[in-house]
Amino acid sequence: MQKFSLVMPMYNEEAIAEKVITDIMTSFDQKGLDFEIVIVENGCKDRTREIVEKLAHADSRIKTVDIAVNQGYGWGVINGLNAATSPIIGFIDGDGQVPADDIIRVLKCFENSNTDFCKGIRYNRGDGWKRILASFGYNGIFKILFLTTTRDINGKPKFFKKEIYDTLDLKSKDWFADAEIMIKLLHKGYKPQEINVHFDERKKGKSNVSLKIISEFVKNLIKWRLALWTKKK
User: What digits encode the pLDDT tens for the residues 78-117?
Assistant: First the structure.
């Protein structure tokens, strides 16, 4: 397997940062994988930065990206992916909700299927019925607007070839980054391989997704669809 970079943006994750990072690295080491971990300290106001810097000092495979002021989840993802150096790059939330073994399963699917793009589909979700219902709603809207059978647009990890990522020119600094990636990849004709991943309940820390974010997400879907229609004319 080629070397890969895994980007994890973190915002105020002092309660779980060390465990999430060390658990993932231990699993990768047990499988003999060649990897780089890129941790984005996304304007953290707690001890996350201190914890991550200590881990990076002890292991050169951990690379840190320090964003002084949080400008949104997507800005953290973009900065992390830009800093990744491997031929295969991917990202996942830094909250530990997807087990390391499932990250590896998606990565192996990416390699074995000889695809350009592979992503997770969350199942056995532990994030509560409200988030599940909201996800069902905007995934349905996404399918209708963009005429695709792709499931769970926010599902992670997402892995792709770095050369493909370099053509995307991502702009979304907010939670719409996942959808922008999906829209642009699908628009370019790439069809993702998708694999089920467990999505565990958050053990510690706090989710930063709100109803306001979900509402903005749906508005952005409509705006992007209209923009693509206008572009075709």
Answer: 999 999 999 999 999 999 999 999 999 999 999 888 888 9
170 SS3 class: coil
For 26-183, where are the E strands, in sequence order? 35-42, 62-67, 88-91, 117-123, 158-161
Q: Distance (Å, rounded) from C-alpha 69 to C-alpha 134?
A: 28
- What the block records as the tokens of 201 is 């309940």
- CA-to-CA dists, residue 221 to 110, 172, 177, 207, angstroms: 27, 12, 11, 22
- This prediction has a pTM of 0.88
**Predicted pLDDT at 148:** 87
Average pLDDT for 112-134: 81
* CATH superfamily of domain region 4-232: Spore Coat Polysaccharide Biosynthesis Protein SpsA; Chain A (3.90.550.10)
Question: In the prediction, which pLDDT does 62 show?
Answer: 98
User: Which among 206, 195, 202, 201 is positioned nearest to 101, based on CA atoms?
Assistant: 195
Written as six digits, the tokens of 156 are 């992670």
- Of 92, 48, 83, the C-alpha closest to 63 is 83
Q: What is the DSSP letter of 89?
A: E
